[in-house]
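FW: tagging you since you asked about this chain on Friday. Here's the raw sequence from the shared folder, copied in full. Didn't touch anything.
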Amino acid sequence: MAINIMDNAVLLNLGVALGIGLLIGAERERSKNHVQTSNGQPDNSLAGIRTFTIASMLGAITSWMNFWLMFASLICVAIFASVAFYVRRDERLGLTTEISLLFTVVLGALAITTPVLAASLAVSAAILLSAKEPIHGFVLGVLTKDELNDFLILAGATLIILPLMPNVPMGPFDAINPRNLWLVVILVMAIGAFGHLALRVIGGRIGLPLVGMVSGFISSIATISAMGHRSREMPNLMGSAVAGAVLSCFSTILQITLILVAISQPTLKALAIPLLFGGVAILICGGMLTLNAMHHPVIESGNVSQSFSVKTAFFLAGIIAIVLVISAALNQWFGQAGLVIGSAFVGLVDAHAPTVSIASFVANHQLAASNAGLPILAAFSLNAVSKAITAVVSGGKAFASQVVPCLLIQVTSVWVAYFFNIA
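HL: got it, structure written out here
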């Protein structure tokens, strides 16, 4: 097969393969000069920058010519690497270089068909190889066995179970989507893990309030559930957990505002003052709780806390499933006339979905903007009720006694501003 010199695409892809070999080879060359074998001699491993570059080009050229030729070259490189490893088995402690060499051949072949993906994988591999000491130090010196088990549970739930979940409505009134419910389970566990990481890196007094505000954009109910579990597990961080739960409610207000900006600005204009009052009220509450937590010394516990509670995640998903069935039944029985009631019950699960629905009605001229405020605020208020119940169930009386008054202040501020605005 004659190579067409004028084929710029092939030349570009070969250049990508060359760069891949140089990148990974340079990292391996530098790495082996800083490593000693078990005999105390410098690591003269089988592959350096030249070998890796040639291996990448070998994969690229053979792949361009014929798939089976590329496969045969990969087998040959694997045999050479195996023989070299066997000869040096008493000196070497791992297979990293040998596996990297085979991976470089594959990346070189991939560069012919998908150069962007191949280059991205090469950079990722080089970073992973270069970060050997930080990764080993983190896994062996920082990460505990329980934290590793929690990470594996979260990874399995996300990468294995989630793709298997049906993404279709089913159950009574077609109200339950198994994939969405499983996403709730993953979300609660992920927020718990995020909060646990913030505890380890930033500290409880600042970490939990920060996690609460950020996670509130995803789900305030899930955030309150995770914070409540954290307060039970680590009572010394009760103040920070409460602050994180309260600040997640500010994120709810902010997200509703952003939804209305994107879908229906007339609805936003009608609700601007209530949303402003509710946002300022809860932000003041959260800020005061955060400052209070910062000024109280935290006695760090010697016990390593659990990253998240699987039981709490499943319990919350079950409650959401029940509410979805009830709200679907109300919508089917009452239809358009039950818009406020249906929105309120959906708000028990999520305040954002009713906001999107009502704003869409206004945008499609099916509902006046002046009439959109009541169903949206009804959903928001019932959502606050769910948050209060979640606070009691997840965090107990001590946690809920601080979160619920803040929720009451926020809801009261919203409704007072609403009635003052329409008066």
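FW: Residues 275 and 414 are 6 Å apart (CA to CA).
HL: agreed, and The longest helix spans residues 373-422.
FW: great, closing this out.
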